[in-house]
Amino acid sequence: MFYVSSNNQELFDSIEAIGLKHEIINKKNVLIKINMGKYRKNHPRTDTTLLRSIIDYIYESGGRCAIAEGSDGYLTKNLIDYGFEDTLKRYHVKVIDIDSEDSEEVLSYDEKHYIPKCFKEYPIRIAIPATSKREGMIFSNNIKLFVGAVPRKMYQLDGVDAGISAPRPRIHQNLHLSVANLFLAIQSYSPFQFYINGGASFNENIGEFSFSETFVGNDALELDCHMFKAFFNDCEYPDYLDILRARVAND
């Protein structure tokens, strides 16, 4: 299920309709997984205006939150560089750089993955990615967001240096399969219940653009399929969607 909104009031109505407001009121602690590396041209990050609106809403509803991303120790700096310092200070938002966190091994379809233990400290988990398909890369939205949700040190290969394009090279050995398996590992260990898509985006065929609407859902696969069909159907199809469809159907 997902809802579509064209302004902040409709966004807040969507948040209430999907059940997120009820969860905030009753459970308080929220984890938000974002995409927030260093700035690179044609490489959109989680839209800070959207992120700020969601954080304002969480605190106005009596909740509190932490922001999580794997940034090799630079997450706070990256957030400040994107103009987010005031929000961090106003609410005393906790910043969790996943690359510095302890993890627990989770087996997913015979593939080992390592999920940060701290995720379980937050009963409400939200994903706010940047939606994109860049040249030479695969479609990235809610599901692929979780490649950045695991510590880099656990995904290295002997004799392979982690580069800016592949900081977790083990995942890239069989990328689509590993993206699907990692998402299922996350969902079995510390499931994310809500997904919010909007703001800045990039399509390799048309360049940078911004969504005129915001999408709030509770099913990452459903929302990813919609976003790809609606905005990226001129791009290479991501096979991990079909892998996940098959595995969900067989469970």
Q: What would you say this structure looks like, in words?
A:
Helix 6 packs across helix 8 (239-250). The two termini are 19 Å apart. The protein has one domain: Rossmann fold. It is an alpha/beta fold and 251 residues long. Strand 5 and strand 6 (111-116) form a beta hairpin. It has helices at 8-18, 20-27, 48-60, 75-81, 85-91, 175-189, 220-231, 239-250; strands at 2-5, 29-34, 64-69, 94-97, 103-108, 111-116, 124-128, 131-133, 194-197, 200-203, 207-210, 214-217. The chain has eight helices and twelve strands. The longest helix is centred in the C-terminal third of the chain and has 15 residues, at 175-189. The radius of gyration is 17 Å and the shape is globular. Helices cover 34% and strands 22% of the residues. The model has no long low-confidence stretch (mean pLDDT 94). The strands form three sheets. Strands 1-12-9-7-2-3-4 form a seven-stranded mixed β-sheet, with helices on both faces. A three-stranded mixed β-sheet has the order 8-10-11, with no helix packed on it. Strands 5-6 form a two-stranded antiparallel ribbon.
Keywords:
Rossmann fold, 7-stranded mixed sheet, 251 residues, alpha/beta, 22% strand
